[in-house]
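User: quick one, fold this
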Amino acid sequence: MNKAVILAGGQGKRMKADIPKPLFKVLGEPMLEWVISACENAGIPDICVVKGYKAEVLEEYLGRRYTTVLQAERLGTGHAVMQAVPFLKEGLEDDPDGNTLVLCGDAPFIDPGTISESLMLHKQNGNAVTVITAELPDPTGYGRILRTKGGGISGIVEQKDADEAQRAIKEVNSGTYWFRTADLIGLLDKITDNNVQKEYYLTDTIAIALSEGKTAGAYKSENAQIIRGANNRRDLLELNEYARHEVIGKHLDNGVEFTCTDGVIIDRSVEIGQGTQILPGTILRHGTSIGNDCVIGPNTVIDGCVVGNNVEINTAQAYDSVIEDDVVIGPYVHIRPESRVKKGARIGDFVEIKNSVIGEETAAAHLIYIGDSDVGKKVNVGAGTVTVNFNGIAKSRCFIGDYSFIGSNTSLIAPVHLGKGVYTAAGTTVTRDLPDYALAIDRGELKVKEGYTLRKLNHKKEK
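Assistant:
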């Protein structure tokens, strides 16, 4: 069985934040999650994450999804992989020819294709170790790949140790390697800290393997972005900008329209149908799915929602809800979690909906709160309507039947059940259930005091 060891113990001091470096986010997901998903999509679910700085934070994020080991002292990449030796030995007797991928948790753009293709070359050549490389126009700062005349790898030289000819080499080390697992365990035993930094370098395994007559190779990826990481906030911004434009480009190719991409942020898990237009300032998160021929934005956040076809959402926020076909929402609307807006409904300005169902072709035009409620089809909800769903101890639901008309400034004191075709007069407070086709009208006595304001105005003039 093939395994993966992800090195995720870095601190990232220049980030100036108190979390492990691999948990900094690119398009809303930790860099570590990008690396994990690349491994899984390449068919490698058996993963060990090496934690270090703020290990408990990393452990909490992973939630026992994967094996973790602790590098208590950060003594180099080789030392980090040494902590995973017990994980590497698991199942080795049953599969002595298994391989292990070692990669960095803060290099988010490693891709499944590179992982799979490099493994194929690694196995075909019978390599003990295969370095994944890429070619950069400006390789400054990276370790250069030294190759033999036959094209094999003879070593890696770091920038500070390279001579002029070596510095001209543009092929660099990505920090990702395939090892034959049994060979990796043996090579780790032979790495020393005999260097200026007194650290154990994983790169030393190549020279050791070659000295023992083992085969070492290099796979050059066509995706040069696998090299990219983030050492500071500026680097992280660049990673986000690159990923943002790549995701937008994918949607453009799939028939989605962007007239201007200012402020547009789309998670890589989002799906958007053909003919949909995404306007500036739109943020789409966490697996949101949007149908065909919609207009989304401007200045809209949709997080974890399923949106149907031919929907318009303008200057609104929606979370963990379902919005069916032909719905119009906005501006200034808040759709809170566990809501469902059914086909053809109209939700206007300054409306908040929470944990509720809005029926087909129902209109809630403006200045409304609907919480913990089930609203039928073709209902008209007047301005200022409030479902009073919380009594300070528990929340209760309201039910409004089909074809009802809720007058302006109606308060529905939950739990109440309004039958089919119910009307409420403006300003009514409903405290009990209403039968089908009833009219509820709540009117106190209107008192008129003639001349009252004139006396007040005259009093002011005298002053």
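User: anything notable?
Assistant: The chain has two domains: 3-227, 233-440.
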